[in-house]
Amino acid sequence: MKRRNFIKSASITGVGFTISASILNCNEGNPEKNDKASAIPTNALPLVIATWDVKESTQKAWEIIQDGGSALDAVEQGCMVEEANEKGQSVGKGGLPDRDGNVTLDACIMDKNGNCGAVVYLQNITHAVSVARKVMEETPHVMLAGNGAQQFAIAQGFEPENLLTEASKKAWENWKINSEYKPIINIENHDTIGMLAIDQNGDISGACTTSGLAYKMAGRVGDSPIIGSGLFVDNEIGGCVATGLGEEVIKTVGSFLVVELMRQGKTPQQACEEAISRIVNKPNSDYKNFQVGYIAVNKKGETGSYAIHQYFSMTKFQNGLNETIQADYIIKA
Ligand code: SD4
Fold this sequence. Notes:
By secondary structure, the chain is α+β, with helices and mostly antiparallel strands.
């Protein structure tokens, strides 16, 4: 199968549509629909936001910030909660493998000073986000890949372990029976975790971690570890993280675009909407067949979220309230 066809057919597989609509309680793009959210200030600091319904992760990050910790510690440790969660099949341990059965992780992290670190195609190490942080803090580089990344992690004291759980192995074996590299819909209640936090000093950091598209081609790397695509933070302006079909995010340098749009004066919501429009309005865009979602925060603590399709959500911890918010989306029936 030609690469282009594979990517197209893979698009729904990694999207991670969230079906748990019952827990979703408001619409960022239509605040009047959200009685609960309208009762509190929408830009109180500090705050934590993350892609999908990941309340345990935002809870952890919030606790760190409440204890006086930095946004950087908060996003790292918040993401680690999902990486360790074996039931989540798109991040860290238990992530669905590539089409050859190998679990390969991508992650990045970015601090208030514009420093960043990333790992791509990392195997056998659960906490990819922490390895990314070590790359940022302990090497002169930004990104390490594959075996080199794994060797670096082990040298830094990370324990290698098998990330392919029985459940994920079984899912892969089932997929192989009829796949022909065609998509299946992921009905997990969360997917790639991207997180942004503003700490008590008003400083912003972000992180993003994923096992990427389920049953991807061996060697495939998505947007999540690419600074500017899966994540971008500018402590003067704000931050953005992406989820969905990474190829489309990379082609539009999505997270950097959102932050630059905020720099030009757009609200986080307007910036996310514009970045989604850029994808949808490309000539011959196949957007009906893939998902992309963005969440963003500006320096004031205003947030935004937007996606191509329904069922994307953002978890926000602000004002002591940890809630999952359904994102507005561009394709309305
Ligand atoms: C990727 N953006 O590897 C990731 C996958 C993802 O929701 O976010 N899925 O392309």
